[in-house]
Amino acid sequence: MDKKEYRQYAVQSANGDAKAFAKLYGLVNRNMYYTAFYTLKTEKEAVSAVTEIARETFGTISNLHSEQQLCTYMMKALCAKIKAVLKRYQDNSLDDKQPEIKKQLFELPNIERMIAVMYIAGKYSCEEIASFMGMTAMGVRKKLDRAMQKLGIKD
Amino acid sequence: MTVEEMRALMRRRVVPEDLVVQNIVDYLMDESAQLPKLSAFAFLNRIHDLGMSAKDFTVLLEGCGAPQSVVDKIRANPAMSLNNLVLTLENSELTSDDYSDMLYTARMVFEQTKTTVDVLKRKEEENSKEPTVSELFDDVPEETEETASEEIISVSVEADDNNGEDELSEKEAVADETEEPSGENESDETPDVLEDTSTLIISIDPKKLKRGSVEKSLSPESIFDDNIDEKSENDEEDKTDVSDEEDEQSEDDEEDKTDVSNEGINEKADGKDSPSDNNEETSETEEDDGKKGVYNKPALIISAVGAVVLLVLCAYFTFFGNADAFIKKTGYAEDNDDIFAEVRDSYTAGNMGGEKAQAYFAGEKLFGNILVSQSDFSIISDGDFVYSYSQEKLEAYNDKNINSANKTEIFPPENTAFVDMFQHGDSVIAVFSGRECGFMNIKKGNVEFTVRQDGELCDFLVNENEISFGSVYVPRYTHNFTSSDVNEYIPRVGKNEKTALSAENILLGKTSGCSYAVWGKYSLTDGSTVLAKAALGDPVYAGTDGTCAMNATDKDQNALGRIVRLSEEPIVKETEVIAAAAGCTDVFAALENGKIKFYDAQLEEKSVQENLIELPDKMKFSGKVLLLGKEDGVFSSTDCANIDAPALLETTKENGVVLGDNAVIFKIDSQLKAELLRLENDEVKHTGSFAKSLSESELSTLELGGAEAAAFGDGVCAFAFRYFDGVSVVSKCVMFGKNSSERTLYDDRTGYTAVFNLGGKIFAVSSKGLETVFE
């Protein structure tokens, strides 16, 4: 989406045009969903987290002046939301209906899992993930390396 | 496993319906919103978004249990119009749940095929590099054959290489494909298989798909249907090669199969560069669905459908993409079906149009050759009441209650704002724009009637007892977009209540987009509709005389522009793409490819203005003068009185207030100056001036009251201002011109907030109440 187009949709969104906001949301919804789904236990939690962030962003869209700002804001908010949900978990057990790949991911510690999911499914760089999670890129890289090693994945 | 492979696995997960762009809108406003039921149209729209071909669509319908008569009907009529397609589905037994199931299926295979092709492309790129001998042999996964032997599948796969075999069972196909690369010519074969993805033919037996065999997003287990497997295998004995033992195993021992399947998945995931990507894909389908190892035939078959979807993507739509099939000749519609067909075509193609419509802008007012910047709106009166207005509301006071809280507040219709207000006879007319446009006729502080026209206002024009509006209407999304929904896809106009235009007033033809340029003319006194017409397409501007500018594409998808005049016999002029436009009586100007072209009433091109200093975002006529503007205001004006030779006007920009033929211009340098101007026969005449010397510190605190605090009388002007003289806040209301007068308040809480003419007298309002400035 070019800058002009973004600005147009952002202005419309700021004026309450939900349809225009949906177009902006479409820039990041898949990555948000994958991040939430593979990090949280249930799909319901993932859907709830993403819709909540979408609603929240709809209310603050006027402060987001570029596509990058929007994506960073939404992913940052999602990470914070996911962390809050993760804190409530007693353990990392998953029900049997979850995909096998998710089960593998759930063998990782929460933060490593989040980082791995954003890196693999979201195609985000370590720098981007660091900005979402309030960490240093070096810290993200270390955790990612550990996660990849545990998952047996070659970069 | 590599990151890429894992990414492909993870991204095959179908994003739930609640989170797709089309549905998130519902959740933005209402936390507890429920997904709307899918209608036939919404279903087709979503299928279209996935790029499914007509052929695959019928396979999908058939496989998911649509009545055979429906499938046959669609298959027998490949040129069936969208209208009929929707009606056919609506008249079938299919429910919204069926549509949801089919949509989920289509989305699932779409995701899977997309990621599979990504992987294949990448592998193709890798393989296009010279492989080493060890790499070639490493690429042959020993487990693949074993994995294949576990699979129960009824999809026949045929690669170009396998000309001699019409239909192979998946098992055979997998075996063949896995064997080939392991042969002597493996280094040749592997790239071939990958290259063949573009020509891979997968034939599908629709009998293998069953209604209800598809899971919904949140209930992945429902995708499994062993009975279907059994039945379909029995039906297709001659085409499949599945052992009884395997059948039995699939029915009886789910856990075992789960383990086996998992092994298969892991093996395949570990064995990089396996040429049997179809196997990998199907295995992963199970994994995504959260059921380990139970090979689900419908899902596998659906995956095959997905492959077809992808392969025919380039060929694109038979039903949906063929816009020409629905394009009518340029002319007024005969009935609503004509409109419906054209609207639906654009709507389904996601081409709404109207995105670049040029909204009405008040901007500077041209007064002679002076562009007057006015920050707010003037107060006007109808003789008994005075009215002040902002975009949000209009306040009406009678002279006795001018300063009381007992005022009447008038709000514009929902999702609109006031853009102008003027006096007409004994009424006040308030013009509004937003989701719709129109005017309110107000008498004695009460709204007599409201005239409404769909669409955002582009321009309006008052001509004696009539007012004309040009607006651009973009129909809203509807989940029930049927031919009876005239109120959704046909613009409406009317007094108090809007009614849809009749079909014969809507111009169709060779346009892209399903928005409208709407033109309406109404009586100011009784609100009756004098005429209303509209043109369908992708409008940029709708003029007040029925001339509108649109953009479109020709049949080769080349962008072009079009100027249309909605006369009895419509006139259509093809142009270059139009970025902005404006019209007045007898002159129409359009910004085409960086030039402004001027057209006469018959849309004959008369002249061109080139070498523009900068390109305008918006254009507007003030009388016969064309104003070119950007966000920060008007930057150029051209007199079009002689259309053959439009002349650039030398204008000056001033701050002030314009009301009718009167204007006051303010200048602040070493003193405050005000000049009273009057427009007579298009000439600006200077009729009075006022000057007050103020010290530098006083000037730094000077505040002018704005348009609300300026009024005109017979040869006089009164305006308010205030400043701090070092001791007190001095509020003044001065009158100058033919007569002069002055009122002063010291340290008044509000100062003079309003100055207005009521019945020939000029009043000023402050916190102390109403004062007469001039009688």
Question: What's the quick description here?
Answer:
The complex is a heterodimer of chains A (155) and B (775). Chain A is mostly helical. Chain A contains 9 helices and no strands.
What is the overall number of helices of chain A? 9
Q: If classified by CATH, what would the architecture of chain A be?
A: Up-down Bundle
Percent helix among the residues of chain A?
Answer: over 70%
* Helix vs. strand class of chain B: alpha+beta
Shape of chain A: globular
- The helix count of chain B comes to 19
Summarize the amount of helix of chain B as a percent range: 25-40%
Strand portion of chain A, in percent? under 5%
Largest sheet of chain A: none
Task: Report low-confidence residues of chain A grouped into runs of 5 or more.
Answer: none
pLDDT average of chain A, as an integer? 88
Shape of chain B: elongated
List keywords for this structure.
heterodimer; A: 155 residues; mainly alpha; Butyryl-CoA Dehydrogenase, subunit A, domain 3; 72% helix; 0% strand; B: 775 residues; alpha+beta; 9-stranded mixed β-sheet; 6-stranded mixed β-sheet; 19 helices; 43 strands; 27% helix; 33% strand; elongated
Question: Could you describe the 3D structure shown?
Answer:
The complex is a heterodimer of chains A (155) and B (775). With 155 residues, chain A is an all-alpha fold. Chain A has a single domain (3-151), classed as Butyryl-CoA Dehydrogenase, subunit A, domain 3 (Up-down Bundle). Chain A is 72% helix and 0% strand. Chain A has helices at 3-14, 18-25, 29-39, 43-60, 67-88, 100-105, 110-120, 126-133, 137-151. In chain A, helix 3 (29-39) packs antiparallel against helix 4 (43-60). The radius of gyration of chain A is 16 Å and the shape is globular. Chain A starts with a helix and ends with a helix. The mean pLDDT of chain A is 88. With 775 residues, chain B is α+β, with helices and mostly antiparallel strands. Chain B has 3 domains: 3-311, no CATH class; 365-373 and 446-653, no CATH class; 661-774, no CATH class. In chain B, helix 3 packs parallel to helix 7, helix 4 packs antiparallel against helix 5 and helix 7 packs across helix 15. The radius of gyration of chain B is 36 Å and the shape is elongated. Residues 130-328 of chain B have low confidence and may be disordered. Classes of the chains: A mainly alpha (155), B alpha+beta (775). The A-B interface holds A 8, 18-19, 21-23, 25-26, 29-30, 32-34, 37-38, 43-44, 47, 50-51, 54-55, 58, 96-101, 117, 119-121, 123, 148, 151-155 and B 1-3, 6-7, 9-11, 13, 15-16, 18-22, 24-25, 27-29, 31, 217-218, 220-221, 262, 265, 287-292, 355, 477.
